[in-house]
Amino acid sequence: MKYHQNMTSEPTVLDRLLEISELFQRDLARAFAGTPLTPARTRVLWELQHGGPSTQQALATRLEVSARNITGLVDALEAAGYVARSPHPSDRRATIVSLSPSARRLMQTMQQEHAELTAELLGAVAEADRPALARGVDAIAARLRELIAAEEARTADREAAGA
Q1: What is d(CA 58, CA 47) in angstroms, rounded to the nearest whole number?
Q2: Are strands 95-99 and 54-55 parallel, antiparallel or unpaired?
């Protein structure tokens, strides 16, 4: 990251958000060290936990990844015993992906740990400030999604114009 000479030494809100993101990534890496789980594979498990069994196509759409990418993720999770594939009941071209019993237990543990960490982190914020914090974080996330969507649209327009 480049620093401008006139930058203040005080961290900005963005600096803090980036730090929090890095801390979460470090914690995930520590938690999954020695396992075949990666952040991307964990996202698949989390989606299956919350959304139930799914086709690979639906998973790819919800996770915003390519069909090739979801196939690799599901292949690795299946090889490690976290998910199982079964035939779709009405579409013989599709496959249903579901959590294995051990993955369901793991995800229940992860949900409990997630709730405990949420409570622990929010404990650092005065109770009266929590609603404002939640609104602020939601607003920042919504605005970032808007900015990314706008930039993706501009990129697509430039690519279409150049094609």
Answers
A1: 11
A2: antiparallel
100, 84 in Cβ contact below 8 A?
Answer: yes
Residue type, 18: L
pLDDT tops 50 at residue 3: no
Q: How far is the CA of 52 from the CAs of 41, 96, 99, 152, in angstroms?
A: 16, 10, 8, 30
- Assess if residue 47 is contained within a domain: yes
Domain residue limits at 92: 13-100
Q: Total structural domains in the chain?
A: 1
Whether residue 124 has pLDDT greater than 50:
yes
DSSP per-residue codes, 23-89: HHHHHHHHHHTTSS--HHHHHHHHHHHHH-SEEHHHHHHHHT--HHHHHHHHHHHHHTTSEEEEE-S
Residue 93 counted as domain residue = yes
What's the pLDDT score for residue 136?
A: 96
- Chain segment 125-143, per-residue pLDDT in tens: 999 999 999 999 999 999 9
pLDDT at 9: 81
Pick the closest to residue 98 from 44, 35, 43 (CA basis). Answer: 44
Q: The CATH number of the domain where 31 resides is what?
A: 1.10.10.10
Q: What is the pTM of this model?
A: 0.77
